[in-house]
Specification:
- The chain has 218 residues and is α+β, with helices and mostly antiparallel strands.
- It has one domain (4-166, 184-215): Mog1/PsbP, alpha/beta/alpha sandwich (Protein Transport Mog1p, Chain A).
- It has seven helices and ten strands.
- The strands form two sheets. Strands 3-4-5-9-8-7-6 form a seven-stranded antiparallel beta sheet. A three-stranded antiparallel beta sheet has the order 1-2-10.
- A hairpin with a 2-residue loop joins strand 8 and strand 9.
- It is globular.
- The termini are far apart.
């Protein structure tokens, strides 16, 4: 079923109590996830001018979403042509408990494909919690392993960016690019994910979508 992987991961994060972990770990605290800016980060987590302007015009289109019908969460993003974007299905309790776990916003995937996709989420996170600690908790609660990571500056926003390996019950080993940035008390999260053998094919696409993710709500 489409988005099954995303939903399973969201449930795992919720059950893991990510919010409680973040409240207990101040910015700059030492964590067990040590890999940072390793030599292969630029290869596994590409960023920059990966497509020409013509390739962007022909291969992507801009779309605006307003999750939950709340203009505060409105954002713009590039969607690859041939992909579908859908507002995420959530329970009202997830919004009420958005300090405890990430809340899905929008899911994307190539039409007819269920082993590659991307999604956007958000969580309210205390100011004293650094993005590095936040993503350490995200990886832990997803049952994942950090393979490589780096820091990015996207349109003046400081971002923490990593590659996480997980295992899906149905699809097997998965690679997930997970990137987070802060806007006030909200941390936005972008993930681009796929089965191991497809990540290489889509990694540049994930990078282009990530770079375009632009919250515009007030």
């Amino acid at each position: 079923m489409k988005y099954t992987v995303v939903r399973r991961l969201a449930v795992a994060l919720t059950m893991g109590g990510l919010g409680m972990l973040m409240l207990a770990r101040p910015a700059g605290a030492q964590t067990e996830q040590a890999p940072t800016e390793t030599a292969d980060a630029k290869d596994k987590l590409p960023f920059g001018d990966l497509f020409t302007p013509e390739e962007l015009r022909s291969g992507f289109y801009s779309q605006q979403f307003t999750p939950y019908g709340n203009s505060k969460f409105t954002f713009e993003i590039l969607v690859p042509k041939g992909w579908e974007g859908h507002l995420s299905e959530i329970d009202p309790d997830q919004l009420a408990q958005d300090t405890q776990a990430p809340v899905p916003m929008v899911d994307f995937s190539p039409s007819g494909v269920d082993d590659v996709g991307a999604n956007t989420l958000y969580q309210r996170v205390p100011a004293q919690t650094g993005l590095d600690a936040f993503l350490d908790g995200y990886v832990k609660n997803a049952g994942g392993t950090t393979l490589t990571r780096q820091k990015l500056d996207i349109k003046g926003r400081a971002c923490e960016d990593l590659l996480m390996r997980t295992t899906d019950d149905s699809l097997g080993p998965m690679l997930n690019r997970v990137t987070a940035f802060r806007r006030g008390d909200i941390v936005y999260i972008f993930t681009g994910w796929g089965v191991d053998e497809k990540y290489e094919k889509y990694k540049r696409v994930f990078a282009a979508v990530l770079a375009s993710f632009n919250p515009t709500g007030n």
